[in-house]
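Page 42, continued from yesterday. The earlier attempt failed because a stray header line got pasted into the input along with the sequence. Redoing it now with the clean sequence only.
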Amino acid sequence: MELSPERLVAQLDSEPLRPAYLIAGPESLRVLEAADAVRARARREGIDEREVYDADGRDFDWNRLVQGFGAMSLFASRRLVELRLPSSKPGKEGAEVITTFCADPPPDVVLLIVGGEWSRQHGGKWSEALAKIGRIAIGWSLKPHELPDWVERRMHARGVRAERAAVERLVERVEGNLLAAAQEIDKLALLAEGQVLDAARMEAYVADSARFDVFRLVDAALNGQPAHALRMLHGLRAEGEVVPALMGMIVMELQRATALARVQARGGNMAAEFKAQRVWDAKQAVYRRALQRHSAPRWERLLAEAGRVDRIAKGRPRVGEEPLDAWLALERLLLAVADAKAAPLLAGGA
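This time it went through. Structure tokens are written below.
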């Protein structure tokens, strides 16, 4: 039976660890926190030894995982073996390894599989076998009407009390960004001092996470949301921002995406590159979606275009460069990042 991440976390407090867990889904925060709960439960049961395997490419050697299952621990009677499966697709060989494990799980091993994207087509006999001995939790993206209840439950868990109007105000502020909501709720736990928050106090305490800031502007483009990115860009302009002030963050994020695309193109270790680029788990799904949209050469082209926009904004275009308005140039760049069909808008075409 498929559980929500929150239901899984609740069950971990009332039942012993199962031999295996699969936690995956597009909502990274929900996946991350459920996986953390399994790790915490393992520690409470005295499992201090943890082995991590990153199956992030076709070159992953599944025999390493098989050997890890059979290895005897020198320091502990039980081990947590964590398999990170960003694609949530183990392939034929990986599916056989997982199915074999589930048929006769070693008594000294708890298997935790953490995946990224998930759909009804991702599962198969391997996930069905895991469900028989363990738990499956899928972190689906929350629908708009589900957000107020999610926020209210999280506030209650953090000891924050608020009127429904205040809850709805917070939901409006964070615009569906669960990570932003979680950060704001943690802050409220410190500021509220046990008082019941009404809408006015919520307005005073909570930063406008829905304001048009450059961090979320870049996320919208990487997530493939061109309309949202343009709305945020226009908001930034209306607030009095200038293009040069935005370009540092935009160039940095495009440099990260370009580096990741190069590694992906040559079949390298994406987990290691995410770590090298300091991309935390909660944001990796954003980059993975973006990497599916453009090839490595296209990312090189987008990065070069960002440099051109920066020069135009600073009044230093190269000889022969189109004398384009900086805001229009930036708008075209963000559209191209968000939608592959918009690449011809760039100078020189796709």
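Notes: The first strand starts at residue 2 and ends at 3.
Reminder to self: strip header lines before submitting.
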